[in-house]
Design a protein that fits this description.
heterodimer, A: 520 residues, mainly alpha, 20 helices, B: 231 residues, alpha/beta, six-stranded mixed beta sheet, five-stranded antiparallel beta sheet
């Protein structure tokens, strides 16, 4: 049987996708099978059972659940409010979202810690008691603010899939708020659930923010276990409960996304024009918009105040230049390299058959792996003589980011594949000079919005990656994230404010361009 | 704002209605009346503004200029419109536009929210029988044939017993046999409706269903050349 060049290339890329995302996990499994796990003297149970770990897991799940519920609720209100505005207003709103989605959570942590410090100074000078910004509430607050822009963008994508006629038909029969509840939300549900699941996952897998606010979560336990025992197999066992819970949530929240076939309208929220909603709902919408604006502008204002003067800003930028360059290079490379692999995977994921189901499960499983474990898996996979000097090189950072975020790129591209009109693909195959010509002239331009969105998402998440990078980064190297996090952790906010401010300003300036490109 | 004595008036008055999209006029200075027990067809080529006119009547769009009155009460004017569900109008769209997450019964029951549970069920049974849908209650739209989906769309529109039924080319892309069957069904159903406005570009369909035909020409509504449009 003759296989076309296109099919051959697609299969190779698919194999590459599987190796890159599942390879580290398989390597860990191999280590577990071949190297026996040792326990402390007199301990008979595997390291996954203890009351302390159960409490940690419960706390982690509660935090992630709260962040997902609050974040999704505010995102829903903000997205419905934005949908009813003029085109210009919507553009400004999108710019604001894209500008803030790129900011790593710890920049928000620094911002809000500073805000509360200043506020407390004022309160104390007035003879009042200061506010306690610490612990779970502070962690949830910062995580909601950090992940909210992403949630709003996903909610807007969900709303874009709501067909105007379906809403118009409902509006002739019921009040607009009921239409929103009974028709719009169920129609947008697959993406809303996926967005909520993503928020849950981002919170569950992040130990940096709770740790900054004095709380331990299960992902930190995974990292700590490896640091103490240096046994990848044992760490894998420790991570099992977390992986299990995360996988369960992912399977529930992403189940609808798999069967998502409703095409995009291509225009923003036609369904909501002229909707009249009750006043109390408008108040909630206004609150959500104010919340988003404060979340976006607070880092800019507070970091500017922290930096103090221009020479100090220049000094911190100069000091952080190598890390900035390293971060930009690795995240850009990750964003670009992931595209062909994710595209090949998305072509399988978009077809509802058994092969696709298996690939969906693998893709979702990788999302459920704690970042520290991904890092440990990278070491287990690539630290072999077969791969020469790969281990210990800068490439490890790119490989790690690919494992962590390429599944998300594949999911984004799957949505784009489903929106592609099959008749256009058939017409291309009929009239193209050769396969490359058809791809270059027709199919890639059709996929361009999805490719750009996937690349941007991966770049943004890669630039902010911390927990896995910490394990694989070569000696003497640091990403901007690592540097900022270390400064915050060791209590030197002024030193990090310049770098963070530079990051914020860079994002604010480039985000209109990104918003424009995404609109195209 | 009561402008006239209600009992002396046609049910609906449309006065000098103008609608634009992105600055381009679609309808200009459209005026007409809809009397009780009238069947009106609106003809016109694609893009002439027929659907826009129906959407304005339904309250799904706001006019840039002009007003729509119902029993002497203004229901649409620039910047304000009475919500669509408070106008007593049912609408059937070009596509069946059935909500995919609801089954046939749920699609029909959606508009019966202000009835008690038992009354709503009774009305559902009546409408299902009227539209030959008995036995399909639990099916979801994706498991219906084209003809069944159109009948469900019609059943959903008439279930709340609207005074005015707006039909936006509900028979497009159907084979001739199915189209004839549905036309017969529409004519039967239309006898229970006070006002029927049927938008189409099929003259035969318009003549079969309506006693009055208007045409949209150069963004304005004109009486049909056959004389059927004379008021």
């Amino acid at each position: 049987m003759q296989i076309s060049m296109e099919k051959c290339l697609e299969r190779m890329l698919l194999l590459g996708y599987l190796v890159l995302i599942a390879g580290p996990l398989l390597a860990l499994g191999w280590v577990l099978l071949t190297a026996p796990v040792t326990y402390s003297a007199g301990v008979a149970l595997p390291p996954i059972f203890s009351l302390r770990k159960a409490t940690l897991l419960l706390n982690s799940l509660l935090l992630a659940g709260s962040v997902a519920i609050v974040g999704t609720s505010i995102a829903l209100l903000a997205a419905t409010a934005a949908a009813a505005q003029s085109n210009l207003w919507q553009r400004v709103f999108r710019w604001l979202l894209i500008a803030t989605v790129v900011l790593p959570p710890y920049v928000h942590a620094l911002t809000w810690t500073t805000i509360f410090d200043r506020l407390n100074a004022v309160l104390l000078s007035l003879g009042l008691t200061g506010l306690h910004f610490h612990g779970w509430v502070a962690s949830a607050w910062v995580q909601v603010i950090a992940f909210l822009p992403l949630a709003v963008l996903i909610t807007q994508a969900g709303f874009r899939r709501v067909e105007e006629q379906l809403v118009a038909a409902a509006r002739t029969q019921r009040a607009d708020l009921e239409v929103l509840w009974w028709v719009v939300l169920p129609l947008a549900k697959p993406l809303l659930l996926a967005g909520s699941g993503l928020l849950f996952l981002l919170s569950l897998m992040d130990y940096s923010i709770p740790y900054l606010f004095g709380k331990n979560v299960y992902t930190l336990e995974v990292f700590a276990d490896f640091s103490i025992h240096n046994q990848p197999g044992r760490t894998l066992m420790v991570a099992f409960p977390l992986v299990g819970m995360a996988l369960l949530i992912i399977l529930i929240s992403f189940a609808g996304a798999r069967s998502l076939v409703v095409p995009s309208q291509g225009e923003d929220h036609l369904w909501c024009s002229g909707m009249s909603l009750p006043k109390w709902f408008h108040y909630l919408q206004n609150f959500s918009i104010i919340f988003l604006v404060i979340a976006a502008l607070a880092p800019l204002i507070m970091l500017s105040a922290l930096v103090g003067s221009l020479p100090e800003l220049i000094a911190s930028l100069t000091n952080g230049a190598p890390e900035t360059l390293f971060t930009l290079t690795t995240s850009l490379l990750t964003g670009l390299i992931c595209l062909p692999f994710a595209l090949a995977a998305s072509r399988v994921l978009a077809i509802p058959d058994r092969r696709s189901l298996a690939l969906w499960l693998i893709t979702l499983l990788v999302l459920a792996i704690p970042p520290s474990l991904v890092g440990i898996g990278q070491v287990a996979l690539w630290n072999r003589s077969l791969f020469g000097g790969l281990y210990g090189s800068d490439t490890m950072v790119v490989l790690t980011n690919l494992t962590r975020f390429m599944p998300l790129a594949a999911i984004v591209l799957t949505g784009q594949q489903r929106r592609t009109d099959q008749l256009l693909v058939d017409a291309t195959r009929l009239f193209q000079k050769n396969t490359a010509h058809g791809w270059w002239k027709i199919r890639l331009p059709m996929l361009a919005p999805g490719l750009l969105a996937a690349a941007c998402l991966v770049m943004v998440l890669s630039a902010g990656e911390l927990a896995a990078t910490l394990i694989v980064i070569p000696p003497g190297r640091a990403t901007l994230t690592l540097r900022i996090y270390n400064f915050i952790h060791y209590g030197s906010p002024e030193a990090v404010a310049g770098l963070s401010l530079a990051l914020v300003m860079l994002v604010m300036v480039t985000s209109p361009l990104m918003a424009f490109l995404l609109e195209r | 704002m009561a402008l006239f004595e209600p009992e002396l008036l046609p049910l609906v008055n449309v006065i000098d209605l103008t609608k634009q999209y992105n600055g381009a006029p679609v309808l200009e200075g459209v005026s007409f009346d809809l009397a009780e027990h009238s069947r009106t067809a609106i003809l016109g080529p694609s893009g002439s503004g027929k659907t826009t006119l129906l959407r304005l009547l339904a309250g799904l769009e706001l006019p840039e200029q002009g007003e729509i009155y119902m029993r002497g009460q203004v229901i649409s004017q620039p910047g304000w419109a009475r919500p669509p569900h408070q106008r007593g109008m049912g609408m059937v769209f070009q596509s069946p536009a059935l909500w995919p997450h609801m089954n046939v019964a749920q699609n029909i029951l959606f508009g019966l929210g202000n009835l008690s549970r038992s009354s709503a069920r009774q009305r559902l049974e009546v409408v299902l029988a009227q539209c030959a849908l008995l036995g399909l209650e639990t099916r979801h739209p994706q498991h219906l044939s084209g003809g069944e989906a159109r009948r469900v769309a019609l059943a959903r529109a008439i279930a709340p017993q609207p005074q005015i039924l707006l039909l936006d080319e509900p028979l497009t892309n159907l084979d001739p046999d199915l189209k004839n069957t549905l036309l017969e069904l529409l004519r039967t159903i239309a006898s229970d409706i006070s006002i029927l406005v049927h938008v189409t570009h099929d003259r035969q369909e318009a003549e079969f269903l309506c006693e009055r035909i208007w045409t949209i020409c150069d963004r304005r509504l004109v009486a049909d050349a056959t004389g059927k449009g004379e008021q």
